Amino acid sequence: MEQELRKMAIESYLKGESPKSIYKNLDRSKNWLFKWLKRYQSGDPDWFLDQSRAPVKRPKSISASEKKRIVETRRHLESQKFAQIGPSAIKWELAKAGHHLPSDSTIKRVLKQEGLVKKNSICSQGCRISLFHRGFRHQSHSSGRSCRTTLHQRRWQVLFVQCDRSFQPSGLYRITTH
């Protein structure tokens, strides 16, 4: 549909119709008409087709050899016993070898693309660690309840009392007695 409008506009222009009447009749802008007229005059047989808006070059992309160097450096660091394996460690190793230094975010992106980013071993499923978890043994009281449950209850009470106080700024609420 849009391609047919473009062809019609150029045909009308070639027949001698004024540019203003063409773009007014087609309900388009002046810039639209002259853009397609310029493309027609370029001599390209597919002048009426949409062109890609993607950049021709990616100035921030790195070459395949640099990617390979980053991956090899990471694998070398992983093979060492106590070496760090993050982007800053990789950058350090590349600097020692005298290579070009990409940014940390570029190194992270390459590692992620290659599947070398490891999830946190503590929370591999995206789980949460309890704030109140302690590794002590259960001791029982004479009441039959364990220390752990009473300790948790006390911590929660303290936490909620602190939250209640933080939501009530002083001087804004008056306590009235009837």
Question: Can you characterise this structure?
Answer:
This protein is elongated. The protein is built from seven helices and no strands. With 178 residues, the chain is mainly α. The protein has helices at 2-14, 19-25, 30-41, 64-79, 87-97, 104-113, 147-167.
Total helices: the number is: 7
Order of helices and strands: HHHHHHH
Query: Which secondary-structure class do the elements indicate?
Result: mainly alpha
In percent, how helical is the residue content? Answer: 40-55%
Please report the total strand number as a whole number.
Answer: 0
What average pLDDT do the residues reach? 78
Distance between the termini: 77 Å
Question: Whole-number radius of gyration?
Answer: 34 Å
Largest sheet at a glance? none
Strand proportion: under 5%
User: Shape, please?
Assistant: elongated
Instruction: Give start-end ranges of low-pLDDT stretches.
Output: 129-138
Give a short summary of the structure:
The protein has 178 residues and is an all-alpha fold. Helices cover 51% and strands 0% of the residues.
